[in-house]
Amino acid sequence: MIVEVVIELRSVTKTFGRSLQPAVCDVSLKVHAESILVLLGESGCGKTTTLKLINRLVEPTSGSILLDGEDVSGLDPVALRRRIGYVFQGIGLFPHLTVAENIATVPRLLGWDAARIRARVDELLALVNLTGRDYASCYPHELSGGQQQRVGVARALAAQSKLLLMDEPFGALDPITRDELQTELAALQRALGLTIVLVTHDVTEALLLADHIAVMKAGRVVEHGTPDRLVADASEEYVRSIMATPRRQAERVARMGRGQ
Question: Model-level pTM?
Answer without folding.
Answer: 0.91
